[in-house]
């Protein structure tokens, strides 16, 4: 699917209460284009609860169930069970997509118990975590997804811990489909949503969601910052199916040597939340910590990719 072939129908309507350049609303727009009108949306307490606009108006063109902060996995399970029942009774003729939409606070922290339980039971829904790396709706507090050294309103000199990786925790649940996504690669995201919709069971997709007010960059730069995250290797794009991980889009090109890995400072400098790492023209040693980690990850990925190529070569010849 190419960008110009995306369905024209808009289900993310005009008049939302989202901030200018809001990544969550941009991601929802593409997700709706991939899934279409026959979708039931579960929204977990987050910016998305607010950006729908004040009751009785709604900017979302599908049925929405707004639910409590901890309940993404549990509500997804309940809606999936209801769908199954209504299909069996013949009340629903066509299977709707069940889409759970939650932030990183609602996924990494308070919601992980319900999500893990649902994933282990294999409940039939797509779970999208739009990860803006903070509790944005309540004023940018740190979450388990906030990256190392980032300012938040309660890590004012930079977070001391590295983030955890929930996509990999979902891989460890042996799900039929786990993927990561970026707003700078909308076709990649669209295809991943379409694929997730074609698979039964629990599907987990995580979208990096650069937030202009929370990360402190201009509201016209959401896509630029999204792209830099991939180009500098801070954010990896992949999909995991049948026990195998395949890297996609910009990440795949870096691993295979078609694009270069940019220095992480380019990504960090684009955001005010890392400003303290570049005070007085000097680079803080935490920038080196970042680069070292990323270089290690990419050394391993490139090595694994070359090894696979060599083995395939040998298999073909032998
Ligand atoms: C049990 C509970 N604690 C706190 C809140 C207040 N609250 C609503 S949204 C939110 C932050 C959500 O963060 P995240 O899930 O990352 O979504 P974002 O706001 O970043 O979109 C909080 C703390 C709540 N609704 N319920
Ligand atoms: Mg968040």
Which kinds of small molecule does this entry bind, naming each only once? thiamine diphosphate, magnesium ion
> Any idea of the CATH topology?
Rossmann fold
* Strands, count: 8
Radius of gyration: 20 Å
Broad structural category? alpha/beta
Placed side by side, the strands forming the largest sheet appear as 2-1-3-4-6-5-7-8
**Main β-sheet description:** 8 strands, mixed
Describe this structure in words.
The structure is a single chain. The chain has 318 residues and is α/β, with parallel strands linked by helices. It has one domain (3-275): Rossmann fold. It is built from 12 helices and 8 strands. An 8-stranded mixed beta sheet has the order 2-1-3-4-6-5-7-8, sandwiched between helices. A hairpin with a 2-residue loop joins β7 and β8 (244-247). The longest helix has 33 residues, at 285-317. The chain is globular. The chain starts with 22 loop residues before the first helix and ends with a helix. Bound molecules: thiamine diphosphate and magnesium ion. Thiamine diphosphate (TPP) binds at residues 45-47, 69, 103-106, 132, 134-138, 143.
In short:
It contains twelve helices and eight strands. It has 318 residues and is α/β, with parallel strands linked by helices.
Keyword list:
Rossmann fold; binds thiamine diphosphate; 12 helices; 318 residues; alpha/beta; eight-stranded mixed β-sheet; 41% helix; binds magnesium ion
